[in-house]
Design a protein that fits this description.
Elements (H helix, E strand, L loop, with lengths): L3 E6 L3 H12 L4 E7 L2 H11 L3 E5 L7 H10 L5 E6 L4 H9 L4 E4 L4 H12 L7 H10 L12 H11 L4 H8 L3 H15 L4 H16 L1
Parallel strand pairs: 1-2, 1-3, 3-4, 4-5
Helix pairs in contact: 2-3, 6-10, 7-9, 7-10, 8-9
């Protein structure tokens, strides 16, 4: 069994110790380091290149969003699971735009965060129900309708929202990886987004519109 190497970054020692204690009881996850500032978190991620970093948004010296931005700009291979109290919709939107791989809420059980770590590691996009509700309410685009996407593009987008990789989508639809890349380029252009995380957020809105 592959062991998921994790860095925990939070400025609250109680949160760090609590999460570390829970993870220590898991056979498939290992905490390789902890950090209490954004600057320290970025340094550790650079040096250790863990599979996943659980990143608090509110940290001294460098906030979580800036740390996330550096991780993406430097193309570090680490998945980023944002840890948030989820009381700031603007921060969540910014994290989406900076390509966070998922969200874990401090208001949910710590065990849910552990589940989210596994999901993010496997390449799934993790959105709590509260995040989906926020996306539906605040990321509306009045000029966008479900008819702006072709039937195939909607099918691809739904699989992206489920967390499938390009290769997995290609296998599911019996097409080539290049075909999926082509569809995604069209989807991004039509939805005016920059990445699959933002596209997944729009998908939740389209779902709501389709049910209306």
């Amino acid at each position: 069994m592959a062991v998921i190497r994790v860095v925990l970054a939070d400025d609250h020692a109680l949160v760090l110790e609590g999460m570390r204690s829970l993870i220590d009881a898991e056979e498939d996850i290992e905490v390789v380091a902890t950090a209490s500032t954004g600057t320290e978190a970025l340094k550790v991620v650079r040096n250790l290149q863990p599979d996943v970093v659980v990143l608090d948004l509110q940290m001294p010296m460098m906030d979580g969003l800036t740390c996330l931005e550096h991780i993406r700009a430097e193309e570090l291979p680490t998945k980023v699971l944002v840890l948030s109290a989820f009381n700031d919709g603007d921060s969540m939107q910014s994290a989406l735009e900076k390509e966070a791989d998922g969200f874990a809420l401090k208001t949910e059980s710590p065990q849910q965060t552990i589940t989210s770590i596994r999901q993010v590691y496997r390449g799934q996009l993790v959105f709590p129900q509260a995040a989906k509700r926020w996306l539906r309410t605040h990321r509306q685009r009045p000029d966008l309708t479900i008819t702006d996407l072709s039937e195939r593009e909607i099918e691809v987008l739904s699989l992206v929202a489920q967390g499938l990789t390009n290769t997995q989508i290609a296998q599911r639809l019996s097409v080539s990886d290049n075909t999926i890349k082509f569809h995604l380029q069209n989807i991004y252009q039509k939805l005016n987004v920059n990445n699959r995380t933002e596209a997944a957020g729009i998908y939740y809105k389209l779902q709501q519109e389709g049910a209306a």
